[in-house]
Write a structure and sequence with these properties.
The structure is a homodimer of 408-residue chains. Chain A has 14 helices and eleven strands. By secondary structure, chain A is of the alpha/beta class. Chain A folds into two domains: 196 residues, Rossmann fold (3-Layer(aba) Sandwich), CATH 3.40.50; 173 residues, 3-Layer(aba) Sandwich (Rossmann fold), CATH 3.40.50. In chain A, helix 1 runs parallel beside helix 12, helix 4 crosses helix 5 and helix 9 crosses helix 10. Chain A has a seven-stranded mixed β-sheet with strand order 3-2-1-4-5-10-11, with helices on both faces. In chain A, strands 7-8-6-9 form a four-stranded parallel β-sheet, with helices on both faces. At the A-B interface, strand 3, helix 3, helix 4, helix 6 and helix 10 of A face strand 3, helix 3, helix 4, helix 6 and helix 10 of B. Chains A, B: Keywords: Cytoplasm, Glycolysis, Kinase, Magnesium, Metal-binding, Transferase. Chains A, B: It catalyses: beta-D-fructose 6-phosphate + diphosphate = beta-D-fructose 1,6-bisphosphate + phosphate + H(+). Chains A, B: It comes from Rhodoferax ferrireducens. Chains A, B: InterPro entries: ATP_PFK, PFKA, Phosphofructokinase_dom, PKF_sf, PPi-PFK.
């Protein structure tokens, strides 16, 4: 577009994932194949870096280093939690104009897609020829129009492996184990906890999702039943569980303590929910060994737990974004669509079909009792987790006859 | 010993590790090489299973399945938290006599080694020819006489990878991150957090160990200083941090909230310490983005994060225990001793040299200011973590000139 050749600007927004740099590198390397592209700029810390004109020139990177960065988790350009409104997007647009950017590619979730949508509208209003593309990324898997989103499969793999280990630990030292998983509105990541199950008595035995109303009395009855049956119970809980009115369960339980138990302590993004649920189980069910973990940041940034399928697809959405942008497909959001078992293709969706919308788990993925997932969900998720998932083996049972107390 | 051939009894005690089944399988397979061994029994759930005569016959396992179980984390026989006193050990001894067990091999930490010591004394008193061997295992790395203990390297690898990821996440979305790591008395596992550092500004920037007194005001000053320097701060904290009187910091901070903040909520084995430290940082330093994680059970049972060095050594301590037992080396505790950089050999230590004693981090491993570890610790730990540790790469900095506000 500009006299010196096209300029592409790419940025990363929202929470980091294990594969978000694959998309970044997909953009940077694919752009090198187009003779008309003079520069690929990267904005540091997302839209914040655009406002601040904090750009780096990715065209000066070696392809070798880019490949190594692609395999490094978290956002190499830095990220931001800024959620631009129209005015903020106008500021973005001013900077893009000043630098004669012809293509704006933003890697992110819901909020990022909405930013791309507004910037696209501003450019249209100004009659400025800007191609605006949203590249999907979120461990929550909550973008509509996508079979799944890059970043989710690797986070799901972490959660599955974590619960596979927690289940083995719980079998060795029986008790109740509560693991709290990310996902305020969509339960996909919490549901992934069951993918490491193998034997019929393996946990997690109960799964609580934000798609269903959480009723404490019912929860306690379900834990009691599983504990009576197996002598132990492993539970996966979404951080987003809430009552019928939508009030977070952590707030309700804190009130149950009859004083402002947590004072200034915030009730999300910390260990409160796991601890409060463990207290309820201990005090109401009189079970002694009850332990809770909050997976926190480990599930999205752990270095060394990644799905090869996720890596490949995250790379491809970046590549496809450049192809769509430079071959005149118009503005839009790149989406993953499943075409086989297992194969995918990429589509370009209108920005307003994706922006600001939230996908939650389909009913067909949740068992009727609401505390488990269906075979359809297993079939949906398993291919995404990739190769080399750890497998658990048991000693077979060859009992030895008792000599001192044969009747026991 | 018995007419039908020797009988070995093996059991697993205390917290599971990623490689404790390697030791179990080392015992079971090595015993097959000795013609005089008729049976290898496994007690289910440690000493509890001995009292209950809850034995399985490992001689009926296929070597193929044993190899698969060896690669599965957590205790395949089950474990126990029972800490036997003399009377309990007398009960153990009665069962061993009844089943004509000639060799008792117990895989565990400090408490387990003490059990082996008492059972050994009971057998001597009774004039019963019983070989008693302790096989080391603990993620805390706190057994004296050992260069390190099986299970620690894999847990250390998890902690190093977790902090490597948390550091990248924190660099992308700057703020303060607190990760709380297991280890009540010994800080080895917390110190392992630094092994994923690569660039000079990488976190963890501060490490707080139970070997040093924790002073809140000093902690806050140190966090403030790092935050001012890097615009972010990653902190590794041992769950065992305490004040000069030995009082756990979680208890002190809970009191600071001016009401009995946590009610019945216990202050260890949950997310309280991380949450309370985060509250202090937010309220005292006025830093907005402060996040805490408690690694909890993930660090000892995560399925799919293991050191190959740890696997190999855990297998060998099991094999060596059988060799020591059957070749008449006497009772004792198998210990790992470093003989090269990197190579090890195995010794048999007297039981009372190990039992009931706790090793903590040597002063040479801790920096004089108490908030970091020395090169000597890096050199000590790195070879234990094994092959294929993830490496992190960065974009190199190629800034683009600002056009709208060149002066900024």
């Amino acid at each position: 577009m500009s006299a010196g050749g096209d300029k592409i600007l790419v940025a990363q927004g929202g929470g980091p994932t294990a594969v978000i740099n694959q998309s970044l590198v997909g953009v940077a390397l694919e752009a090198r194949r187009f003779a008309q592209v003079a520069h690929v700029y990267g904005a540091r810390h997302g839209v914040r870096g655009i406002i601040d004109e904090d750009f780096v020139d990715l065209s000066q990177e070696t392809s070798h280093n880019l490949e190594l960065v692609a395999n490094t988790p978290s956002s190499a350009l830095g990220s931001t939690r800024d959620k631009p409104d129209v005015r903020y997007c106008q500021e973005i647009f001013k900077v893009l104009q000043a630098h004669q950017i012809g293509h704006f590619l933003y890697i992110g979730g819901n909020d990022s897609s909405d930013t791309v949508r507004i910037v696209s509208l501003e450019a249209q209003k100004a009659g400025y020829p800007l191609r605006c593309l949203h590249i999907p990324k979120t461990i929550d898997n909550d973008l509509v129009g996508n079979d799944h989103t890059p970043g989710f499969p690797s986070a799901a793999r972490f959660v599955a492996q974590a619960f596979a280990g927690a289940n083995l630990d719980n079998a060795a030292l029986p008790g109740v184990y509560v693991g709290v998983v990310m996902g305020r509105h969509a339960g996909f990541l919490t549901a992934a906890s069951v993918l490491g199950k193998k034997f019929p008595d393996d946990g997690p035995h109960l799964v609580y999702l934000p798609e269903r109303t959480f009723v404490l009395a019912q929860f306690l009855a379900e834990v009691k039943e599983v504990y009576a049956r197996f002598g132990r119970c492993v539970i996966a809980v979404s951080e987003g569980i809430h009552d019928a009115s939508g009030t977070p369960i952590a707030s309700l339980l804190a009130k149950n303590l009859e004083h402002d138990a947590h004072g200034n302590v915030q009730l999300s993004g910390n260990g409160a929910l796991a601890d409060l649920l463990c207290e309820e189980i201990k005090s109401q069910l009189k079970i002694k060994r009850v332990r809770g973990d909050t997976f926190g940041y480990l599930q999205r940034s752990f270095s060394g737990c990644v799905s090869d399928v996720d890596q490949r697809e995250a790379r491809e959405v970046g590549e496809k974004a450049v192809q769509f942008a430079l071959r005149g497909a118009g503005d839009g959001s790149v989406a993953i669509q499943r075409t086989g078992a297992y194969a995918v293709d990429y589509a370009l969706l209108p920005l307003d079909a994706v922006a600001g919308k939230t996908r939650v788990m389909e009913d067909a993925f949740i068992t009727p009792n609401g505390t488990g997932v269906t075979d359809a969900f297993h079939a949906y998720l398993r291919p995404l987790l990739g190769a080399g998932l750890p497998d658990a083996f048991r000693l077979r049972h060859h009992p030895v006859a008792k000599l001192l107390h044969p009747g026991r």
